[in-house]
Amino acid sequence: MFKLSLIALSLVIMAGCSTGPQDVVANATKAMGTENLKSIEYTASGFSYSLGQSPNPNAPWPKFNAKSYMRTINFETPASRQTLVRTQFENPPHGGGNQPIVGENTQTVVVTGSSPWAGQADIWITPPGFLKGAAANNATLAAQTVDGKQYNVLTFMAQGKYKVIGYVNTANEVEKVETWVDNPVLGDMAVETTYSDYKDFGGLKFPSKIMQSQGGYPVLDVTVTDVKTNPETKIDAPATAAVVVKSEKVTDGLYFITGGTHNSVAVEFSDHIAVVEGPQSEERSTAVIAETKKLIPNKPIKYLINTHHHFDHSGGIRPFIAEGATLITQDINKPYYEKAFSMPRTLAPDKMGTKTATMETVADKKVLTDGKRTLELHLVKSSPHNDGIIMAYLPKERILVEADLFTPPATPTTPRPKTPSPFSTNLAENLQRLKLNYQTILPLHGQKSTRAEFMKWIGKT
Q1: What pTM did the predictor assign?
Q2: What's the CA gap between 283 and 305, in Å, rounded?
Q3: Residue 54 sits in a domain of what CATH number?
Q4: Do 212 and 84 belong to one domain?
Q5: 38 in a domain, yes or no?
């Protein structure tokens, strides 16, 4: 009896001393000084990397200097505004992300409570945001040792759907936060952010070092130099951009599909259609498919031609596969897409689902023809933009279709660059090497152009 009483007393004492998830949250909130934090603004500099814009599918995202990085967050609204000023790092330029940057490039990203989780996540994976999210969403607790260090690991479900995991160290600092966001190419894409070198900024403990990876490669590596607590914040919701599709008949059976930042081209053959580029997202490509069917009724879309693997040019591939189209891409991309198509998509199931993709590849050249119309696909060799980028050429019509290598100026009076882009000069070299007799250019960014305008733009007039 005495022995049982001691056991019972021991269990009571253990229960009284045990630490629950809200205790961990409370201890970290107090230690970091975030109890009364409603908004924050922090400034940093270092490096940023352009997601999905690597020079080839096996390379990390291209690197840029982050001359300045500022994020303002209102945790109550919630809302966030990020302003990043980038300068060129890669020398020579290699990959996408608006390279080469001449001077400075400023990017501003605004998210609100109505934005997709891929944007909102940046609010709740900050150390203060994570603690607030854990407190509000019934976080669970587990103890874990990683590389010999002990952590209290808190997990909660944001919006009842998105898992967020945070590692709180023995100093009650949030050291790492993991989550997953839906990505049109990679599916449930991992986002991992580490925080270190905590410093006191006016009573708030905040990391002076922030490193983040997405899709397995770094996207941010900055040192924080200033933090403001509870600044006045007014973050207006960004304008909602509806998908707009326009089309222009270039010649019989050939249509230039525009209306946004990315274009596609529909090519009619005797018993089928080939579309060059399924860009951006399922929403965009679904609209392109609908427009193509309206322009060329009663024929199936047999082929989708993908110029290169950059996310803004491959994010809309899956709806075409759902339509039954065969994907044509450069050799280097086949293993990459096979892997990407098999990745889990629990956060945003799509039309393709688990359907198996049929793929054909291009080495240096591939020709599609029905005996009347011919469409040639050529590798752009030694392109500094992408190692596996292809262009399309219709010899009879003397039309070139290209992506990212030449974007026509917005107006005829737009000043010509002092130094032409190496992407454009490399394109010109390839066109000369292949002796392609083109007169019209259908760029997958920007407006229709001509050979004369292209040559003038690169200073070859």
Answers
A1: 0.93
A2: 18
A3: 2.50.20
A4: yes
A5: yes
